[in-house]
Amino acid sequence: MSKKGKLLVISGPSGAGKSSVVFKAIEGRDDICFSTSVTTRNPRPGEVDGREYFFVKLERFLEMIKNNELLEHAEYVSNRYGTPRAYVQQRLDEGKNVVLDIEIQGARQVRRMMPEAVLIFIAPPSLEELERRLRGRATDTEEAIQGRLKRARQEYQEADFYDYLIVNDDLEKAAAQFNAIIEAEHCRFADWSELLKKA
Description:
five-stranded parallel sheet; 9 strands; alpha/beta; Rossmann fold; 8 helices; four-stranded mixed sheet
């Protein structure tokens, strides 16, 4: 494997099973980690700065945007969230593959800031299956389910800039595909061309 890690951006509709795929894929691997986000919200009981999030004041967050210190950022329920570039770069330099689980808008921002990032879209086998999974959770109202399905259709139309698509119809298979993408990315010619020059 090349020494430097890869930045892996994963997106997909709610109910696609993104977290399940990634957690299954990273079982037994110590070369993959999740990024830690910056947020302006207050810590909840038990949360530790630098573990769950990096907690900052709004002024600092806006300063980070201005200084291009965030790979992506968004506002959610009156709080700001973002991915700190320095933290991600540090992990990549340590040889870790860093996973970002973010929305399509954030993925576009990352692609602009770090064109070498690997963008992976995870989708269910059909919208019917997505609806079945959402109903199976029994956590959403009918209105929320319809909203999530509408958003999924929008995401499908916007996701044409991703590098890979994993259809999560079988968890083991989807996790294996995720790992295969990582292995393939670590075999990119550009990462190893110096080796040939030394011959």
